[in-house]
Amino acid sequence: MEPLRSRKLLDHLITWSIAWFLGLIGAPILIAVVLAPFQPQTAGNPGGVTPVLLPVGLGLTYGALATLRDEYGIPPAWRPSVTQGFVIAWYGGWSAAIALGVLRNLIDGGPALVQKWLGGDIVFWFVLVGLPWILATLHDRRRRGAAGWVDFS
Question: What confidence score (pLDDT) does residue 23 get?
Fold first, then answer.
C-alpha cells in the first residue's frame, strides 16, 4: 500500500481544469444530441445537431467524471479505465444515436417512416456495434485460451 500523499492546491486546480474542460465540451453535446429529435425541422435546418457527435460527447463526459473520480475517490466502487470509457462511448454512443434516429423518424413520419428505414438502421448498428462486439469477444476468448466453439489453431 502506497503512502497517502497530501493534495496540493496545484493538484486541485489541474484536476478541476481538466474536468471542467472535458465536461464543458462533452455535456452540452450530450444534451443537444438528446434534445435534437424533439426540435422542429425546417427547410434550412433539416437535421439540427448530428447524432454522430454522441460518442464524442459520451467520451468527453466520461473523461471529466473519471478525472474527478481519480482525484477524489467518489464513488469508491467505480474504477474508471480507458477500455471502459471507449466501450461506453463507442457501443453506447452508436446504439443511442441509432435509437435517437429511429425516434426522430417516429416523430416525423410515424411507424411508416420507421418501417422504411429500420432495415438500414439495423445494418448500421450491426456494422458499428454488433460486429465489433462479436470480434472483440472472439479475440478475448482466443487470448484467454478459453475453451469454446471457436478454434483458431
Answer: 93
